[in-house]
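Entry 12.
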Amino acid sequence: MPARSTSRSAPRADRPLRADAARNRDRLLAAASEVFAERGLGAPLEEIARRAGVSIGTLYNHFPSRDAFLATIFPDRMTAVERLADTALAADDPWHGFVAFVTGVFDLQAHDQGLNDALSQRIPVPPDVRTACDRGFRHLEAILRRAKKAGALRPDFTATDLAVLICTISPLIRETRGTAPDAWRRSLAFHLDGLRAGAAHPIDVPPLTADELARILPGQAG
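Predicted 3D structure (tokens):
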């Protein structure tokens, strides 16, 4: 479908919406949350309008672009990742905390294809969403340090290695969700066993730097 102009402006934030307009906006957000979770970030906006029971014109009046939806919905979604991080840091066993965090993140992705797309950066996302993703993982280094200090996590595993792991598991989640929705758990179990300090052996190839990772992730474009 030809790209629709996004030059319209959304309602001004300082101007209260009429009751009917506010209801339409709430319906659109609820529908978008459902559709993105079911079909990923590339889901048609027409499907969101249909499920909300409004016209596509009404949708664009409230949300002039796909990015406007994403910037509204996904910062709140990332609070679930923050809660996982807080729980991991509070765990008595640092290894169990690390495993619970990683498994919890993938479980969230398995139940929300939009979040799966956002965290793997399969589809370019607006800066607000990238910032929210960064915020959700802001305690990651502390989680890794605890597990390494306890002698449980191999010492050469880095935050960028986890980002690569997300990019590895995310397509499996996406492709198997209709046939074997728990297949990712088996794959992750093999990866986690390989991350135990006792199973580690020296690796000649260094981890990706943050700059290298940013250059290879498709979602960093735009």
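Annotation: The first helix runs from residue 19 to 39. The chain is about 65% helix and 0% strand.
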